[in-house]
Recover the amino acids of this structure.
């Protein structure tokens, strides 16, 4: 844990190395020092159909899903760390957002 899920506008594949984007988000989570790096999982999904701010502005949206137990301050620092790591590799005209969500531990099921 955590799971880092990156959604991005598919045309960004022409100008951004998506694997490097995934690795940057991973590095941002790792830099937070909240997790054992072996527990961090990151993946990306292209979005073909989207509309951003009344336009077809390129975007990257990152959701970090984790089990409960971190303070709001820790989650805010995690969000900022992931944001900064990814923002460093994107042009300023690409919309970027990061959200941190607690999973419901009572209903979360996984296989190692």
């Amino acid at each position: 844990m955590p799971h880092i899920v990156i959604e991005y506008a598919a045309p960004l594949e022409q100008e951004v190395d998506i694997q490097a984007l995934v690795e940057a988000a991973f590095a941002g989570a790792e830099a937070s020092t909240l997790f054992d790096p072996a527990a961090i999982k990151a993946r990306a999904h292209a979005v073909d159909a989207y509309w951003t701010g009344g336009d077809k502005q390129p975007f990257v949206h990152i959701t970090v899903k984790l089990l409960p137990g971190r303070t709001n301050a820790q989650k805010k620092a995690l969000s900022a760390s992931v944001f900064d790591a990814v923002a460093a590799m994107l042009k300023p005209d690409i919309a970027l957002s990061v959200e941190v969500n607690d999973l419901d531990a009572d209903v979360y099921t996984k296989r190692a």
Notes: The chain has one domain: 3-102. The chain has a mean pLDDT of 96. The chain has two helices and four strands.
